[in-house]
UniProtKB/TrEMBL annotation:
It holds the Pfam family MarR. GO terms for biological process: response to stress. SUPFAM superfamilies: Winged helix' DNA-binding domain (SSF46785). Residues 5-140 form the HTH marR-type domain. GO terms for molecular function: DNA binding; DNA-binding transcription factor activity. This is HTH marR-type domain-containing protein. PROSITE patterns: HTH_MARR_2 (PS50995). The keyword Transcription regulation does not apply. Keywords: DNA-binding. The keyword DNA-binding applies. SMART domains: HTH_MARR. It comes from the Bacteria. It comes from Lysinibacillus alkalisoli.
Length: 143
């Protein structure tokens, strides 16, 4: 890899890390709900996709099965999700969002809107579309 490209990639890595810290700090500053971004993403996934097995949640959120256990424990105790055993295979369970979880998700939308506006509000539609294309390309595995 040529030196100029290597330096630019290194700089992008630093910028991405700084943005992640900034966005996390912004979330923590504006978060009045007491749940992490990942908790809200989990609720959103269940609201949009319906009941899911813990393995599907882990894959979607890109966390370990232990991570799913940690996330779901707090949501279960608070009544925002339920864990249902399947009748066919009692070893398999599915996680489902409750009505209370739907309400929390709705409350979080204002916070998310504020955060997203702070993150991307200064960009034009064209810049956002380009950024989305670039981010998607970065997530696509190399052949």
């Amino acid at each position: 890899m040529e030196q100029k490209k290597r330096e630019t990639i290194s700089s992008l890595f630093e910028i991405a890390a700084t943005l992640e810290r900034k966005w996390t700090n912004d979330w923590n500053t504006h978060n009045t709900l007491g749940f992490s971004k990942t908790h809200i993403l989990l609720l959103d996934f269940l609201a949009n996709e319906g009941p899911k097995r813990p393995s599907a949640i882990a894959e979607h959120l890109q966390v370990t099965s232990g991570g799913v256990t940690v996330l779901t424990t707090k949501l279960l105790k608070s009544g925002f999700i339920e864990k249902n055993q399947q009748t066919v295979d009692r070893r398999a369970s599915q996680i489902v969002i409750t009505e209370k979880g739907q309400e929390l998700l709705e409350q979080s939308r204002q916070q998310i809107e504020t955060l997203v506006n702070n993150m991307f509000g200064m960009l034009s539609y064209e810049e956002l579309a380009t950024l989305r294309t670039i981010f998607t390309k970065c997530l696509t595995p190399k052949p």
